[in-house]
# Entry
Amino acid sequence: MNILKKALLIILTIAIIIISFLTVSASETTHQAIRNIIDNKQHKLVFASIVNVHGDEVTVYVTEEIGSYTKENTKHNEDDPIYPSVEGEEIEIEGLKSYMYFDGYDYHPKKGDNVLLSLTFNGNVYSIKNGAFLVTSASHDNFLFKVPEGVEETDGAIELTALYKFVSSDGRNSDFTVRDSVLYTHDTDGEKVIIEDPSGIEYMGEDGKIIQTENTDTDEQDELIGDSYKWIIAFVLIFIGVISGFFVSKIINNFEKRSEQK
# Structure
């Protein structure tokens, strides 16, 4: 086996490592964004309708602010400033260029879209903090998330279910952990439960038409497990890739030595 083939094998091994890491990292980014929203790590979480899109400037009409972001319910420190209400107002948003889960799709914010926005406020300017989500209705009482088909085959569906339940409760219920496509929470009596069936989601085809709706729940008891497993998987994949590359290199070297001895 010549040096060129050896180099190609090593390059292939490295490529597998990188792809595996990026795949897990992308999933972790979305996972963390939803976790940040549920943990109130933004200045406002609002429902809105887009009234105008002009280049990078997007104007929305805010229909509702999620209740947990008022002063009396927030998890932030008591010394945190109270941001003025924008409910019933039109505001300009910076950074609203795409929706969560729509990477790689030719679908961008447009006039008439209903959205759920995680916002940060800086110098009289609102910008996207933890993401923007396309929804069916601009109200926590009767909305569904709209995402591309294929999300149902990933952890994204059950993570969205956690966010759906959080928002539907007007921000009062934040007791959610996701692991292996299962949502762990507690019932009103404090009993541990799991939710395996996604809810609060409509799936869209490439033409933008709705192809499936999931809005049912199934609860069963199980133990609550932490959600840091994804980074562990990333490191395990990298470790396996490095070890594989090492052994591939050793095998090639031994093969070449035997060939030379013959």
